Amino acid sequence: MRVLGIHGSPHLEGNTAYALRQALVELERLGFETESLALAALEIRPCQGCFHCRSGECVHDDDMLQVYDAMRRADGIILASPVWMGMVTGLLKTMMDRTVLFRTGGQFGMTGKVGAGIACGGFRNGGQELTLQNMQTYFLQQDMLVIADGPQFSHSGAAIVGPAAADRLGLTTVTNLARRMAQALQTR
Fold this sequence. Notes:
Elements: E1 2-7, H1 15-29, E2 33-38, H2 64-73, E3 76-82, H3 90-98, E4 114-121, H4 128-141, E5 145-146, E6 158-161, H5 168-186
Parallel strand pairs: 1-2, 1-3, 3-4, 4-5, 4-6
């Protein structure tokens, strides 16, 4: 089984990338194939609401084609974002909007895949929960199964504060999230 990690930070090697990498390393340790995409390294134009996607293709010819292919191959998807204004970054939101293509013509191309989120903020209560709820709403609208980090904390997902490498509590939620992803995929 394959898990795709997508991070929406403009920093290719920042806290969000670090936290996502920790989740994917844990999944690899548990026997899963993983793949990672950094949206900042891709050219993805915003959805223009033209409904051309009803034909099965987006009007834009950009790097989103790579994202579509990776999402189709994945059994599970972990989205990771820093908190910007209490929500996901514009990069991640643009990617989310462009995946409306998976919902066109009465088809839901993401049905049954497992989704989870990681949010990185500057403070322990710095908007991570709302950012994770943005991700959960996205997964639900794609008809995906949504998981959280589970006991002992059981928040909306994994939450990192400050420098990710130094946030032991936050990294525990990342490990828990990866293990819950593995369990969910193994029982599907």
